Prior knowledge:
mainly beta, globular, 1 helix, 22-stranded mixed beta sheet
Amino acid sequence: YPNDLDAGTLYVARFNADGTGDRHTLNNSATWLHAGAGSYGYIGDTGSAAVSIGQFQTRYGLPVEEEAFIDMNQMRYDVQGILHAPVRFLESIELRAGYTDYDHTEFEEPGVAGTVFDNKQSQVRLEAVHAPIDGWRGVFGLQNDHREFSAEGEEAFVPSSTTEGIGLFLMEQRTFDFGSIELGARVQRDKSEPDDGSSNEFTPISFSAGSVFNLSDAYHLKIYLTRAQRSPVAEELYAFGPHLATGTYERGDDDLDVETASNADVGLDYHGERLFWQINVYYQRIEDYVYLTEVDQGLNADGSGAVDVDGEADRVDEEGNFDPAGELLLVDYQQDDAEFYGYEAQASYQLLTGPVALRASMFTDKVIGQLTNSTNLSRIPPARYGFGLDVSRGPLMGNISYIHALSQNNLASLETPTKGYTMLTANVSYRLDVPGGSSAEIYLQGRNLSR
């Protein structure tokens, strides 16, 4: 990997930093990645156990800066154990535990480290599958999450904090002649405590209900209703400072409350011998939705200065001083009622079967996000559509996909339009049998191939 990231560039179709031109090479876009994982498991008559270790390391340039780059490292450890029929009323008990040690450093230039982010997170989940009760089958359990986050450096924009969460959950399902019914519930207790301030505590409660109607052997109608709550995370509560990776200066709000989302999702699908398709439409209303938005006040990040509303999103320098030509966009975490609605659709057809298998597919999706006063939310992805082709012959497999995103013109008040783009991806792989019953895979992947 080059020490001087100017040596690496990425070809980007229809993109220029100033919004002009059709094609451009994106400076400071070099990427290096190394990853590996291993696992070992045991399966017995009364249960099973497994352990795994995964490592991930990457370094990539930040195109918003001339020489800045991110150096990221992660180690993850997981254990899992299942005991079958431990007592009469339980079919199984499963314990899963994971620990992740993650850090990344934002370098302003080679050899000049800026902010170091460190995140240590553990999760323990104990769940039991109970024996059928009047036809109902279900899972209940307990989950604990622990997170220790720290950011050190002159440009640390989130204070060090500890987050603890514990939750109880229950999921039930029963099959009927017409289809099935699914029910779920979860109650959580979360506490987020920064090192230099008072703590925030939340108790989100969630419920869900859904049903699948078998209209025929091939057609299925699905209806799901949920009420889900989410606690604000540390970044949303306590952020205050420059975030070079996103080119923003973020300001959190420790008075944020729990989000409450009410969702309705209706879907219809068809499973034929060669043809498959499905379509989903959804509506979501979120009370106290937490979102990131631009501001127009003409003030410094700390609120000092003289108000100057000019209809343009405020920009600041790395010190938070107001500067119309500043490198960073000033953004706030705010909270308002919002609604989202949209659709998702996909279809595939098996063109060939036998020694050579060939399947064609297509998809489209769209989402509209607004505050309840009909104001557009920022950073809403545009409508997309795409096509794909998958082919295989024995151990040899390949696929090609084409995705086109339309331009985004449903803009928030201080947001600028975004042009559409096209992404072409191709992959080919070959699977090798390895002595001992294992296998290995060799692959070649190309992304962003359109010009």
